[in-house]
Amino acid sequence: MGLFSSTKNHMPVEGKTVLITGASEGMGLSASIQLSQKGANIILVSRNVGRLEEALLKVKSAAKSPSTQKFTYISADVSEPDYAGAVIAEAIAWNGGSAPDIVWCVAGLSTPLLWVEDDNALAAARRNMDVNYFGAAEMSRAILREWLSPENKPDPSNKAEPKHVIFTASVLALFAVVGYAPYTPSKWALRGLADTLAMELSLYPDHPVKVHVVYPATITSPGFERENKTKPEITVELEKEEPPETPDTVAQRSIEGLERGEYYVTISFLGRLMRCGIMGGSPRNNWFFDTVLGWFIPVVYYFVLRSMNAQIVRFARRNGHPSGYKKTS
Ligand SMILES: NC(=O)C1=CN([C@@H]2O[C@H](COP(=O)(O)OP(=O)(O)OC[C@H]3O[C@@H](n4cnc5c(N)ncnc54)[C@H](OP(=O)(O)O)[C@@H]3O)[C@@H](O)[C@H]2O)C=CC1
Ligand SMILES: CCCCCCCCCCCCCCCC(=O)[C@@H](N)CO
């Protein structure tokens, strides 16, 4: 977070234990496999046990040192109130009494729809909030209470690496797009929580912990196939601006950003522009470049928004009042 970047790896994982939610499919599975290849012990968390079993085999067979690394899964629903304490307790018991060193909240879902026309809008918004926001919020609180408790003060002679808690948002938390009303606020909420925690963590100078937020654009995952079933046509049109990436690529670029020590990690060029466009009072990855780039983004947005809104108006003229659109859900 200094003026210039360094080449140090800020998140070494070899021999560390990483807990990942949403780890049975999509980006979470890819991240688990890649961290296994780098020598981490992995705890996979999601709901469906059959998919967790399959994922565990893949993550195991990617291990850098199969004789020393260990792997397990815990089935849990991150939308259940108070789920996270039990997950962390089970993880600690499995890990010989030590808490995981890194917790990455990836579990999420999206229910694209038109806010005004769709009868499911508010139910979908609550579900998106429960999984995407509260799922990650509860997990962060459970692990931070463990890491930051006075009994768990790291031995200063031991040069402990910082712990890491990582949230997974979306570029939609940096730039909103029509059709994502139930989802976008849940990802913006994660940003608000992360910025607050980044400051709160300074109250614990003897317990080094870093918080991060990853902002992927479209990921060609099983979740993307599901969300496309209800996605409004105009949303499909607009999001073509940002090309989809595979779960493997998104996981790889996320890990690279975390290794560079970034606070907000973006995956693409547009994502980086969007990040510099919203910085406000958020911590910067690089104070010089992020600030200078940030000066130009309002000008870019003048043209981007003009063109997008014109595209939406053309769509509206072609398709008539939205109450007449073909029902997607
Ligand atoms: N796909 C996209 O285009 C984008 C996605 N994102 C975000 O990135 C993250 C990963 O997305 P993606 O790769 O598409 O994920 P997928 O939808 O493909 O996979 C979701 C994973 O989360 C688990 N999961 C879902 N709901 C719950 C729950 N209630 N409790 C526990 N686990 C749950 C699923 O397993 P199970 O169902 O068994 O529980 C699965 O392992 C999400 O946070 C998503 O919002 C961000 C930008 C773009
Ligand atoms: C200065 C910057 C210019 C900005 C250009 C705007 C381009 C719009 C691209 C929108 C991409 C939306 C991806 C959604 C991913 C997602 O989170 C969902 N698939 C999950 O449900």
Automatic annotation (TrEMBL):
The keyword Transmembrane helix applies. The chain crosses the membrane at residues 287-305. Pathway: Sphingolipid metabolism; Lipid metabolism; sphingolipid metabolism. SUPFAM superfamilies: NAD(P)-binding Rossmann-fold domains (SSF51735). GO terms for biological process: 3-keto-sphinganine metabolic process; sphingolipid biosynthetic process. Catalyzes the reduction of 3'-oxosphinganine (3-ketodihydrosphingosine/KDS) to sphinganine (dihydrosphingosine/DHS), the second step of de novo sphingolipid biosynthesis. Belongs to the short-chain dehydrogenases/reductases (SDR) family. This is 3-dehydrosphinganine reductase. It comes from Rhypophila decipiens.
